[in-house]
Structures
1.
Amino acid sequence: MSDAFCSDCKRQTEVVFDHSAGDTVCSECGLVLESHSIDETSEWRTFANESGDNDPVRVGGPTNPLLTDGGLSTVIARPNGASGEFLSSSLGRWQNRGSNPDRGLIVAFKTIATMSDRLGLVATIKDRANEIYKRVEDQKSSRGRNQDALLAACLYIACRQEDKPRTVKEICSVANGAAKKEIGRAKEYIVKQLGLEKGQSVEMGTIHAGDFMRRFCSNLGMNNQAVKAAQEAVQKSEEFDIRRSPISIAAAVIYIITQLSDDKKPLKDISVATGVAEGTIRNSFKDLFPYVSKIIPNWYAKEEDLKNLCSP
């Protein structure tokens, strides 16, 4: 039971939901507060004829506006225990005869969904990547290109546009073997094609070092105080002309913060967690060091500690 305001009782009362009638009823006076409610929860009853069929779902998937038929086409499945002769039967022949124009899109969307799940991305990013791929595919100019790299590049661009950027190395780790250079070339190709479609440059969103900080710190198992200090340091670093990529700056700041704490992290661990080469972190540290007293919060480290910082 839950609480709701009853107009007769003039106060919050416990209500009872009648599932058979779809009514919400006040438990004290019996007033029907809401009738014919729609149950939006999942349908888990199973009506399978086959004893071995454990699928409890009786409905299809959600509609997809990017597909020609909205994703509501019917596919004749192979019966349980059927032999290879099924495809030679009349039903099998009719199934194969009607070619699905969206078959390639469906496979691509499934691949994007798999990559998104492995990276822990939200549904809005996955949907944006699907939309980008559909727009590129509609131009019929992507034939002969590495499909895995193309899908990974769509996901990379979607992350940038949704202000939840991922590094190319992170995208590459779930890209089914596509190399970093291939994803980079695919990204440039997609940006060019979308620019031609719109007649203007494509907004990619600006990358800041702070976009990666919480995730990198989590990968290293840093405590809350160190994470807060790292985030403040990264924000202050943007006030200075440090000509390094945001990811390199984030890695260097994490190195500095961990060296000032009791839980020091080896350079190798920071390199693995951030995807930045050890040599790049060393060079970024050298570029940050002249400003270290201005970017590291005063509450986190004393000036004497900053002077004792050693280059990795």
2.
Amino acid sequence: MAQYKGTMREAGRAMHLIKKREKQKEQMAVLKQRIAEETIMKSKVDKKFSAHYDAVEAELKSSTVGLVTLNDMKAKQEALMREREMQLAKREQLEAQRLRLDALREQERRQERKRKISSLSFSPDEGDEGAEGAAAGERPKSAEMSRRKKHLGKNPDVDTSFLPDREREEEENRLREELRREWEAKRERVKREEMEVTFSYWDGSGHRRTVWIHKGGTVQQFLKKALQGLRKDFRELRAAGVEQLMYIKEDLILPHYHTFYDFLVTKARGKSGPLFNFDVHDDVRLLSDATMEKDESHAGKVVLRSWYEKNKHIFPASRWEPYDPEKKWDKYTIR
């Protein structure tokens, strides 16, 4: 690389290729060594078995000179085979113990290497302090270990806010969880608050009533309470159920499953006024300002669905339409 002439980018690429080739050569050398070791082990096994049978045969020949019966011959042969197998088993056991000891030593060396690597510090002052410690020579070991632990980790002089940090992420998650629980507790507290809802039972003319209900209650729960108070005064409601009633607020037909809390939080608007005020009051400001929203609130209407189907072509039912949370009413109208 000293004689290479070219751009820095090409020089870096050439250096990368050289390192890659060297790594491949090392891998090939390791693979060749492994194959050679396997071949040697295989030859050793073959020699071991051949030597085993040769030794048994030689011992058998030396111990069976002359005329010997077949049973004595077999017994002698089995005894020699067992003795030889026991010797081989002991030798293999010693070899396995040696291999285990070598593996343990290699594992200890790897752990020691990892420990040394992990004890390195990114702080530039560590080298100077190490030199001072070597010069002193009498510093206690505990002090040296505490100094090492103190300098482990990132360099405190460098901005590392862009790097992943487990402690910072855990702190952020803990704070986020606390805020979520606090917000949920506040929401549940608001939902349990009671408010007065003013409405009119509409059968062609208005009959005003009031009902107290929790802010977290649904429109269906409100209609159930309203129906309980209206049944004794209106004969047509005595056999009616909640599903046969409709609640119209600011010329919008509100679904039964919506809660009053939904309208309060979103500051929903209707065609003729706000949906987040459920009492009745007029705009009493002395000066009108076109940039300020009017503060008028009208009583909602409770209507039988059958009456609406018969009179939906007549005012005021002709203005009513289903509530759509995606639809925005930028200007109130009453005509």
3.
Amino acid sequence: MSTLSELLELSLDEKTIIAEYIWIGGSGTDLRSKARTLPGPVTDVKKLPKWNYDGSSTNQAPGADSEVILYPQAIFKDPFRRGHNILVICDAYTPQGVAIPTNKRAAAAEIFAKKEVAEEVPWFGLEQEYTLLQKDIKWPLGWPQGGYPGPQGPYYCGTGADKAWGRDIVNAHYKACLYAGIQISGINGEVMPGQWEFQVGPAIGISAADQLWAARYILERITEIAGVVLSLDPKPIDGDWNGAGCHTNYSTKTMREEGGYAHIKEAINKLGLRHKEHIAQYGEGNERRLTGRHETADMNTFSWGVANRGASIRVGRDTEKEGKGYFEDRRPASNMDPYVVTSMIANTTILWKPKGSELILF
């Protein structure tokens, strides 16, 4: 009698593969997926068929007209089934070909396709912080039930059984992302115990957002296997504990070239002028995190600084010294939509042209 593990490891005929179609659900943060059989390996996303699902069961369509169409947009190797099997990041449309309201990728793709944006080759590095929770009590992994660990201090990049909880999950996710072809560039333990971070990028344009969603999906699957709950809440625990963000590092071709520091300052100025608009799109519940404490700037005030983790925008010492490079937008929450945030930053810094009288920061 075969075991479940043995059945899961069965090898398939190379002429048959399984494609896991992944999309964002009605909340804008939940991930949904379902699998289909294809007649052979596929490496070109344009050769994948469209598919459909019941949008009334994901809060994305009414029951009387529930069909939503999935458009494949990006392919990754499947670290769970392996072989030639694939994960497919999709976005969602009506049968008439109109992007549904929760499809934020379509609008982002339009921005990144604009000539002025494409010529600037925008790079993004996304720092995804997250918290691992005990499944039955929704309390951080490693924390005593109904109680608290010692104060923050020893946990950031910490080692040891009393400082780092969930490392096997984190390392499994790291390797799975590398296997999938995601440009994951690192991991680390965060300031609050039970909280971790992984980084995606630098990646160009909309690819950074596709990869972050794929990495989030893989993490959801791994925590599912481990019996642990993944939380992207920007402030999972009230009190003297750090929140969770998704700091967004950004540069353009002009910023990376000689004399780029002036263009960095110009971009920061534009972001300052549109601070309220950006904050409104940077994640639900972010007001609980952006308080001016715990390495954040107050959400009602825009600021920037060199090596200042208490500012809205941080410029690195190397960028200042070399006169070119990148900067970090520290405002986005851990639950932000990377399609929204990356395209909004590109739109504001490249396409938006403020009046001369509005250039007030520098």
